[in-house]
Write a structure and sequence with these properties.
By secondary structure, the chain is mainly α. The protein has 2 domains: about 80 residues, Orthogonal Bundle (Rna Polymerase Sigma Factor, Chain: A), CATH 1.10.1740; about 90 residues, Orthogonal Bundle (Arc Repressor Mutant, subunit A), CATH 1.10.10. It is about 70% helix and about 0% strand. Helix 2 crosses helix 3, helix 2 runs antiparallel to helix 6 and helix 6 packs across helix 8. The longest helix has 19 residues.
Length: about 170
């Protein structure tokens, strides 16, 4: 294995889950997200010599985001489609009773459906901040938006999510 590949795998592969998570939310389809992440990883590997160092995560997620945009440009959709049902029983709770598990599963589904209904530019900053726990600076790097725009989009996304959860939107 050559040195370039070893470095790429050491730096990029730990962020594979984050890449898939972002692609899944932006593409609305786990199967499409897998294709997007595969394409993004290939592009990232090809362009790894041009990586200027620092944290590889924002750089990699920028590539994932661009691959999502390219995929979406081919199949432009105007409606927001909720993610398909997944294995909602995958929530691991050690001592939960069946009733509590059902309530938590239902709540998680409601949150996921509400997030899926957000416009893409708000959904992506919400996912990057709240699920991927990225800083505003990292989100700005991924999205190419100024930090102030990231902050305002995040505030609006949270407000829109709250309204959807309360049934006002």
């Amino acid at each position: 294995m050559d040195d370039r590949r070893r470095k790429f795998e050491a730096q990029a592969l730990p962020h594979l889950d984050a890449a898939f998570n972002l692609a899944r939310w932006l593409a609305h389809s786990p199967a499409e997200a897998e294709d997007i992440v595969q394409d993004a990883m290939l592009r990232a590997f090809r362009g790894f010599n041009g990586f200027r160092g620092g944290d590889v995560r924002p750089w990699l997620l920028s590539i994932v985001r661009n691959c999502c945009r390219n995929a979406n440009a081919e199949t432009r959709r105007h409606a927001h489609i909720p993610l398909p049902d997944e294995d909602w029983n995958a929530i691991a709770i050690n001592d939960a009773n069946p009733e509590m598990l059902a309530v938590q599963t239902s709540e998680r589904r409601k949150v996921d459906e509400a997030i899926a209904l957000l416009p893409k530019e708000f959904r992506e900053v919400l996912i990057l901040r709240e699920i991927e726990e990225m800083s505003y600076r990292e989100i700005a790097e991924v999205t190419g938006a100024p930090i102030g725009t990231v902050m305002s989009r995040l505030a609006r996304a949270r407000r829109m999510l709250k309204e959807k959860m309360e049934g006002r939107a």
